[in-house]
Amino acid sequence: MLKTLLKKDLQAMLVTITTDRRKGTRRSTGGIIGFGVLFALVFVSLGFAFFTYAALLGSSIGAGNWVYMSLTGCMGLLLGLFGSIFSTFTTLYKAKDNELLLSLPIPPGNLLLSKIFTVYAMSLLFCTLAMLPGFIYSWIEHAVSPLGVVLSILTIFFMALLVTALSCVLGWLVALVVGLFPKKNIVTVLVTLLFIAVYYLFYFKIQQILQSIITNIDAIENGIRGYAYPIYAMGRGALGHVPSFLAFAGIALAVFAVVYLVLSRSFIRISTRTEKQHMVQYREKRARQSGEGAALLRKEFKRFTGSAVYMLNCGLGTLLMPIAAIVILVNMKDIRNLLEMAKANGLEGLLAYVPLIAAAMVCFISTMNDLSAPSISLEAKNLWLLKSLPVSTDSIFRAKKNLNNVCTIIPALILLAVAAFVLKMNIVDAAAAAVLVVLFIMFCSAAGLAVNLKMPNLNWTNETVAVKQSGSVLVVLFGGWVVVLIIGALYWLLLRKVVSPQAFLYIMIGFFLVANILVESWLRHGGRKAFEAL
């Protein structure tokens, strides 16, 4: 039975690659290979970033000692927790198939273990992403025995096991207190944003942190030895010291076993518990009639604000763009000094690129909002209810696109207006940049819906799968980045000598206007047929 459950969860994780969700059939071998290559490229790109961090750390303290290995392991621990902690609660206790599976003659312990396997798979992915590049840098810089290579790789698996145990503990604590907050989605978002703030603070302070590590390396060594023995054992074990490796592996297994035993005693009670509901006092008020467009848009907003996973993974740009505007205002004096220095040094020609660069940067940040990309998938088994409403398919599409447009265009224009003020852009250039940004966001909204219609997932048991592990979200998010980068590279490398920045700005307005018309045309015909066939 456990083998069957594990197979089911593994298939659910790989369904984006192996299954055409629109047709409900298995992809061709070429399609599976293509999606596998796409995910591999994303993984390698992110791994290169961690390799750069490892090179900075290794060049500072050396890459052939246990301190370097321990700090690399700490990075894996932190990234693993950051990547899996917010989905653990939903995966363990809020999966849509929990009640069905509990009604079957399946031992609850086996069901819990299969759910933990999903958490372990995510933890292993993030630990590998953070630790393997660091280990590879160590192997390149210092001679290492075959035993050391093997133990280093095995260390990643046991670190993922430790991360899984800690994530399950935190998910268990969330499950115990989640009913205390009537607005638990907002609480989840706020806590997550706090973690994100800490992450970016760490990212921007990396040079100072490395310098502090170099200055206090002796104190760090003593601290790890005395107060974090598992990390010390992990570092030595990754270098090939067998007793230390066995000690770390034993600690990871023991912690996981204890966590599993504790969770198994409360799994049924928590997963079947009726959460405390917030009592709302009825107040009589006059109902106001609204059109179908407003009603559908209101439905989309309620779906968006009712899911912490949806808000955090697809709407983060709505928060980041105003923050970026504040940062620009705070640093206005320094930015304007740079512009004055450019003029003083005879670089006035570069200032002509300012409107184009400002528009490109706002477009790049706006791609972090991809609310339309999973909007069809999130309907799941309730899609028939939406299709049964007396509204047109075009109205449904328009509401899903407008959710992304409203949440993205307003903060994007605020950011662009602040940038235009600080950079002293003239009215014409600022207006042209604003038109380009709006057309680009509308294109991304329509393209996200189109991609989701081609790559829907209506059979998920956990909305995290539809939002975080969705092929359509991946394509739209990274596709938006790629579009901005490719257009910028083409202009700078091939066209800037023959096309002025202002002229190219207007060319891009025309380009995205045509792109919008083409995507909207497909939605009205091919998209409508695809939606009706779901």
SSE topology:
Layout: H1 2-18, E1 19-20, E2 25-26, H2 29-61, H3 66-93, H4 98-103, H5 108-141, H6 146-177, H7 184-204, H8 206-215, H9 217-227, H10 229-238, H11 242-271, H12 292-305, H13 308-314, H14 316-330, H15 332-344, H16 348-351, H17 354-366, H18 383-388, H19 393-422, H20 427-454, H21 463-468, H22 471-495, H23 501-533
Antiparallel strand pairs: 1-2
Helix pairs in contact: 1-5, 2-5, 2-8, 3-5, 3-6, 3-10, 5-6, 5-11, 6-11, 7-13, 10-11, 12-19, 14-19, 17-19, 17-20, 19-20, 20-22, 20-23
Overview of the molecule:
There is one protein chain. The chain is mainly alpha-helical. The protein has two domains: 270 residues, no CATH class; 242 residues, no CATH class. Helices cover 80% and strands 1% of the residues. The protein has 23 helices and two strands. The chain has a two-stranded antiparallel sheet. The chain is globular and about 70 Å long. The two termini are 32 Å apart. 38% of the residues are buried.
Put simply, the count of helices is 23
- N-to-C terminal Cα separation, in Å? 32 Å
- Tell me the count of domains: 2
**Can you tell me the overall shape?**
globular
Keywords for this entry:
534 residues; mainly alpha; two-stranded antiparallel sheet; 23 helices; globular
In short:
The protein has 23 helices and two strands. It is mostly helical and 534 residues long. The chain folds into two domains: 2-271, no CATH class; 292-533, no CATH class.
